[in-house]
Write a structure and sequence with these properties.
about 500 residues, five-stranded parallel sheet
Length: about 500
């Protein structure tokens, strides 16, 4: 039995953007979908992970892969959450569903019509609850969301697809030829099974655009899809199509400096030397290792961080040691904006500088700190800014200072919200020493500010309304990450 019509909410509605991406394994669906969703600022759903989670559950319960009634009942009974992590009845199975046992069985499980009916129902409900989304799989444009704004069939040369997948498994860019051929044989078998099944086969959906990713980077493919969305009126043109507005007056906690202005004398931003990077790596390893012993707990969503280039990391601020736990999210050198009082003790200030920090004068606009922050981002380094400005209490993220939003709009870099649970309980106000306890760090979805309009000299013109809008997006992002950390913590 094959479902061919969308339920209410499956077709795109006015004011929403819905993208369906189908294609065989190794074509780059997940990577492209994740980057496109990030740029659009919408959610992403990997439907293949749902079938994999069901397959894992069936294997664990000893259910036969040909037992259609049992598999259909299991599909209806499972508690399944699919996001950046995959939760099966509350258990994180993100890695487990990529095992060889699941790889060899998932096509057989997915071939049962009753299983597909149940999971398609769940997928449509997920989309209907969000409105805008990028959804990837093998029957999205043809079955799940035939009314999507943009339907894409992403493919690539068979050898390249196999090499990519083998590289993912090996954790290295250059797997050996035998590994590639073994993966290629397994992928071709699954593609044949999925393309020939009676229920919702893998096909090029009617109206879909076929995109070949062979020899192309993720950014190039995403730019092509972005251009198609622009033509459909579902994405802004680049540079951003925001209307021109008068230049913003300085937000209360920052003071504008032209993007071309150098950092103040004595505070120039220069590439870190090998010795400084080695020193940072050593200090980070010691500090993070000690913090994990005192405050054990996972980091969720670290894969959302951009792998290259600059971004603003915007954590919730509930403890004086938030910065130490936040350092767990990446091994890249993080630059910190730190209160200038640290520099009153010369050795402490020098140590802070070696660890990537620079001073800010709190309570007033600090032109030097802003210039330094812009220079750090222009140099391609991640910058940590606590938008709440000072340590706060409770579960609600209130009004933010405008510095992070303003910097993002000025430089065009994304802001990555971070939630941390447990530290306020570990070190409440008035405590002299933090107590041990469990923490959880959640990295939220990056927030893309777009490109600000430029003046006649090519400098960004940031409107107050844009700062306010971006600030609210950051606040909601931090709140969502904080809520997830607290809920799971």
């Amino acid at each position: 039995m094959t479902s061919t019509s969308a339920v209410p909410g499956a077709a795109a509605q006015a004011g929403t953007t819905l993208v369906a991406i189908d294609g065989p394994g190794g074509a780059g669906k997940s990577t492209v979908a994740a980057e496109l969703a990030r740029r659009l600022g919408v959610a992403r759903l990997d439907t293949g992970a749902m079938y994999r989670a069901l397959t894992l559950a069936a294997l664990r319960r000893g259910i036969g892969l040909d037992d259609a009634p049992a598999l259909e009942g299991l599909a209806r009974a499972l508690r399944l959450e699919v996001g950046e992590r995959v939760l099966l009845d509350g258990e994180d199975v993100t890695e487990a569903i990529r095992g060889d046992d699941v790889n060899g069985a998932v096509s057989l499980v997915a071939a049962h019509p009753g299983v597909r009916v149940e999971l398609v129902r769940r997928q449509r409900e997920w989309v209907e609850a969000r409105g805008s989304a990028v959804v990837e799989g093998r029957d999205i444009g043809s079955v799940v969301l035939p009314g999507a704004d943009l339907k894409v069939y992403l493919t690539a040369d068979a050898h390249e697809r196999a090499a990519r997948r083998a590289g993912e498994r090996a954790g290295a860019p250059g797997p050996d030829a035998a590994s590639v051929e073994a993966v290629r044989a397994a992928m071709e078998l699954r593609d044949r099974l999925d393309s020939s099944r009676g229920a919702d086969p893998l096909v090029v959906a009617e109206g879909a655009v076929v995109v070949d990713s062979t020899g192309r980077g993720v950014g190039e493919v995403v730019e092509e899809l972005w251009g198609r969305l622009v033509a459909l009126g579902k994405a802004p043109a680049r540079p951003s199509a925001r209307p021109e507005a008068s230049a913003v007056e300085p937000p209360r906690d920052v003071d504008p400096a032209p993007a071309a202005d150098p950092a103040p004398a004595g505070q120039e931003v220069r590439p870190a030397s090998r010795a400084e990077l080695a020193f940072y790596a050593l200090c980070r390893a010691v500090a993070v290792g000690a913090s994990r012993l005192w405050w054990p707990g996972p980091v969720l969503g670290a894969e959302r961080l951009p792998r290259r280039g600059a971004y603003v990391l915007a954590p919730v601020h509930r403890s004086n040691v938030d910065w130490l736990v936040v350092a767990r999210v990446t091994r890249r050198r993080l630059r910190y904006v730190v209160k200038e009082e640290v520099w009153r003790v010369r050795p402490a200030g020098r140590l802070a500088e070696l660890l990537g920090a620079f001073p800010v004068h709190r309570g007033a606009a600090d032109r030097e700190a802003l210039a330094r922050a812009e220079a750090v981002l222009a140099a391609g380094e991640p910058l940590v800014v606590f938008p709440e400005g000072t340590r706060r209490s409770g579960p609600v993220v209130g009004d933010l200072r405008a510095g992070a939003a303003y910097l993002a709009l000025r430089t065009g870099v994304p802001v990555v919200p971070v939630g941390v649970s447990g530290l306020e309980r570990s070190m409440p106000r008035g405590a002299r020493f933090p107590r041990p306890g469990r923490v959880r760090v959640v990295v939220g979805e990056p927030i893309d500010p777009g490109l600000a309009p430029r003046d006649a000299r090519g400098r960004p013109r940031v409107a107050r309304s844009a700062v306010n809008e971006m600030n609210e997006r950051i606040r909601l992002g931090i709140q969502a990450a904080f809520d997830e950390a607290e809920m799971r913590g």
